[in-house]
């Protein structure tokens, strides 16, 4: 075979290699193009996921704003469109729990949805009784409403609502909690819990289940999932710029005059501030602060704060359902026996009560109650006819209201939570706190 013939036969031999190379390059190009498209789509989805999360967060922030303005708000938010973001807030819900509000918000953009859940501490004035430290509930103390303590709670009598305690909860035999309970650590339940039990530790310190001794009608939830609320700091500081109220002893009629003269703030709530101790009684002792014929009834909405102690020696009743007062003490609150007060009471220090049966229709937030005794303390010199002129909280008798303890209740006291009165003042009550206990992404289902 000649040279020209051999060259002729080789002319088609490179074609398969070229075709194979083209095929390989085409496949690689298609793969790279597909990978590029997937990466671009993934990046776009990541952007949408982030935007949907921002929309869910916006729903939470809208709910927080509503709650700060109106702590009684529970309606939630329906579908809310945000055209600039080309997305929407699908829904926001608010659910009350024993120690918190559960806020849940769902955001969506271009079909991508994300949900966020937030546990928000309940304001301390949303409890009938909220206290720093330990609290024992037994005769002669009756609580009609929810109960909170940063320390441990010992229930020797039933509770009509929810119970939240930062440390341990002990429920004695034949004692029933009508609501749910939350404990930061252990639950020792020898009674009955009608609602759920959320416990910080899976067992008690003896290794027993929360319902080992007693009965839990609802669910047992092991593990809090959020930090327990911290006790608020300076409770009086927000009110120091209020309308000046001189320290001293006032009849209710005279105090009403000061309230009437004070300028109204947001929501028509008047703020008054006393840079000392304050006593409200039927007497004025010639100090020039009496109001003539006294009354047992007040009008309007007011928060009356004092840097020192506040002593209430008489009935203080609301004239109408639209009236609400609160007393905030930088030190202690002393409540006389045999009186009924339709108010919210807040003390940075301790709470003291002795004498005949008394009632609080509102809420009690206090730095501590260490002793509860069925003896009303009259044997200690609480003689209303003696030594009435002493106004430095030594009491109306020789024994003094405070005694040697740190917070006490002597004789019968009933605290009845009045939601209407609390809600009227809640926008201006500093004990609201609004602590965010947890913030997390949540399942859509």
Topology diagram in text:
Layout (H helix, E strand, L loop, with lengths): L2 H8 L4 H55 L10 E3 L4 E10 L3 E10 L2 E10 L7 E3 L3 E3 L3 E4 L2 E3 L3 E3 L7 E3 L3 E3 L4 E2 L3 E3 L3 E3 L2 E2 L3 E3 L15 E2 L3 E3 L20 E2 L3 E3 L1 H10 L8 E5 L3 E3 L16 E2 L2 E6 L3 E3 L4 E2 L5 E6 L3 E3 L4 E2 L1 E5 L3 E3 L4 E9 L4 E3 L34 E3 L2 E5 L1 H7 L10 E7 L3
Parallel strand pairs: 5-8, 5-32, 6-9, 7-35, 8-10, 9-11, 10-13, 11-14, 12-15, 13-16, 15-17, 16-18, 19-21, 20-22, 21-24, 22-25, 23-26, 24-27, 25-28, 27-30, 28-31, 29-32, 30-32, 31-34, 32-35, 33-34
Antiparallel strand pairs: 1-2, 2-3, 3-4, 4-36
Can you put this structure into words, describing what you see?
The protein is of the alpha/beta class. It has three domains: 46-122 and 435-442; 126-222, no CATH class; 233-428, no CATH class. 18% of the residues lie in helices and 33% in strands. It is built from four helices and 36 strands. A hairpin with a 2-residue loop joins strand 3 (100-109) and strand 4. Residues 371-406 are annotated as: Disordered. This is Type 4 fimbrial biogenesis protein PilX N-terminal domain-containing protein.
């Amino acid at each position: 075979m000649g040279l020209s013939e051999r060259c002729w036969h080789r002319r088609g031999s490179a074609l398969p290699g070229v075709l194979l190379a083209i095929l390989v390059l085409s496949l690689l190009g298609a793969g790279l193009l597909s990978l590029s498209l997937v990466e671009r789509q993934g990046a776009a989805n990541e952007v949408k996921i982030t935007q949907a999360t921002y929309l869910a967060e916006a729903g939470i922030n809208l709910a927080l704003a509503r709650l700060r303005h109106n702590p009684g708000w529970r309606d939630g938010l329906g579908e809310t469109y945000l055209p600039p973001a080309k997305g929407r807030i699908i829904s926001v819900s608010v659910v009350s729990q024993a120690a918190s509000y559960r806020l849940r918000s769902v955001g969506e953009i271009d079909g991508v949805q994300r949900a966020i859940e937030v546990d928000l501490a309940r304001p301390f004035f949303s409890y009938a009784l909220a206290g720093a430290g330990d609290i024992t509930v037994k005769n002669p103390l009756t609580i009609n409403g929810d109960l909170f303590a940063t320390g441990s709670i010992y229930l020797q009598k039933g509770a009509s609502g929810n119970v939240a305690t930062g440390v341990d909860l002990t429920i004695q035999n034949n004692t029933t909690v009508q609501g749910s309970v939350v404990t930061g650590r252990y639950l020792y339940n020898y009674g009955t819990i009608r609602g759920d039990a959320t416990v910080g530790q899976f067992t008690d310190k003896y290794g027993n289940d929360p319902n080992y001794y007693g009965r839990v009608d609802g669910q047992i939830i092991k593990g809090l999932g959020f930090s327990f609320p911290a006790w608020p700091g300076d409770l009086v500081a927000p009110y120091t710029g209020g309308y000046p109220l001189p320290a001293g002893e006032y009849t209710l009629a005279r105090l009403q005059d000061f309230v009437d003269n004070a300028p109204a703030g947001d929501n028509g709530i008047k703020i008054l501030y006393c840079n000392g101790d304050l006593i409200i009684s039927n007497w004025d002792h010639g100090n020039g602060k009496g109001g003539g014929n006294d009354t047992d009834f007040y009008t309007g909405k007011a928060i009356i704060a004092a840097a020192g102690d506040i002593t209430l020696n008489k009935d203080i009743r609301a004239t109408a359902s639209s009236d609400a007062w609160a007393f905030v003490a930088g030190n202690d609150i002393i409540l006389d026996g045999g009186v009924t007060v339709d108010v919210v009471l807040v003390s940075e220090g301790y709470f003291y009560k002795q004498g005949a049966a008394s009632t609080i229709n509102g809420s009690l937030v206090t730095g501590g109650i260490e002793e509860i005794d069925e003896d009303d303390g009259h044997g200690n010199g609480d003689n209303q006819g003696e030594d009435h002129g002493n106004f430095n909280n030594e009491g109306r008798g020789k024994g003094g209201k405070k005694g040697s303890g740190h917070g006490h209740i002597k004789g019968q006291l009933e605290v009845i939570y009045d939601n209407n009165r609390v809600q009227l003042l809640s926008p201006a009550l500093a004990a609201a706190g609004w602590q965010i206990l947890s913030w997390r992404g949540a399942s859509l289902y």
